[in-house]
Amino acid sequence: MRHERMTQAAAGRNIGGLVYFSLAFTLGAYFTFAAVQGDYGVFRRVEIRAEAHTLRAERDRLRAELDRMQNMTLRLSDGYLDLDLLDQQARDVLGYIRANEIVIR
Question: pTM score, two decimals?
Answer without folding.
Answer: 0.54
